[in-house]
Here is the input.
Amino acid sequence: MSRATALRPRNWPVRWQLAAVSAGLTLAILVLFGVIVGNLAAQRVRDDFNREMAGAVTALASQVRIVDTITNTLIAEEPELADFTSPNDASVRIYDSRGEQLDASPNAADLGPPVPGIHNVGEMRVVTVALRSRASGRIAGYVQYGRDEQHVDSTVGRLWLLIAAGVLGATLLASFAGMAIARRAMRPISSLTATARTIAETGDPSSHMPQPRVDDEVGELARTLEQMLRSLDAARGERETALKRQREFVADASHELRTPLTSILANLELLQASLEEPSQEEERAMVDSALRSSGRMSRLVGDLLLLARADAGRIGARTRCDLAEVAGNAAAEVAPTIGERPLRIENDRPLPIDGNPDELHRMVLNLLDNAVRHTPAGSTVELRLRAEGGEAVVEVADDGPGVPPEPRKQIFERFVRGEGPADTAIGGGSGLGLAIVSAVATSYGGRAEVGESDLGGALFSVRLPLRGRSERGINPALDRL
Here is the structure.
């Protein structure tokens, strides 16, 4: 998953999605509520400010006296304007009916022409009232009262700031609460996930799912998974029982077949020896063919018996033996069948190990037979034996076509056959030779590997622990034979 895809909300964990939904809903509700309350509160502040100014100018106007004189001039009986301006840093101006200023407070700001009503002049909020003569009832003058709206705007700004902080704080609390609730709600699912992951890693369906505390959807999921595990465990038990019976059958059948095959081979050899007359050439050819087929059958039965014993966990008797001597005997046995291929042996010292000579002989024989089978005539085959780091190393190298990188991954599996233009064996093999090599190596706590040799072809190597340094018994999975 790319980073951009992972950042999409629909790809978030469920607990994050629940927390996001909770925070989003809380934010939407609080924003709507905050806008309504903020507007109402701001309007209330401004209305209070306007009423306060109206009350102040009314009180001021009640103290201004306008009288008619013989000369028809207007005289204002001046009140103490500082009493009205100093508390709120206000400005006051008094005009006559013609708009000429009669008086003003100290440092009075420009309040504009006297127009009755409430209006703004710059950053000033101005309230103007008309003064009427008691004698004639005509407008005799005007009183202006103005205050800077900055402190009102500041109050409204602080109000909006408090509302915004409250909305954000409540949203964060809702997010944390949503996360906590979601985590608690998802805790049973997390427990189920952890158990399922453990079962997937160990491959053991006999484990049990956590028991649900409440009968809800999660509890139903836990019970369903538990039923599935019990079904899988039962199926695995049945499969293992069937495989065990199959392995035992193959092992017993292979063992039982060895005796009649040995008898058949002996009788065919005797019959072959008795057919020496020239007139019996046809009969002799038939016996030779039967003898070859019986020999292949005997080897196949031996391979099956060896692998069946490995699968069934039947361990053969092991004694102190010399791997170098066993490998030399195997090379001597395969020498007549290699044709025109030179066989070189590098074997300069004994390699004592605890093992079964028959199994080790078969392992080396299969390695050499594999090299002969998959190299063209004239190819060089080398058998190398040495001790390295507490291990006995058996290597079979050739200068043939080698093994491509891809088939190397499954070349030691059963019934895997290499087919190519260099294969010289008639009819191909059974596909069990290298599987036996791997099974024998594993049973001794060693390993079988394939690579490229310094000769340019394939290199098959087996590493087995030397006597006294065997890891046998440490890992029971290695003791298969």
The chain has a mean pLDDT of 78.
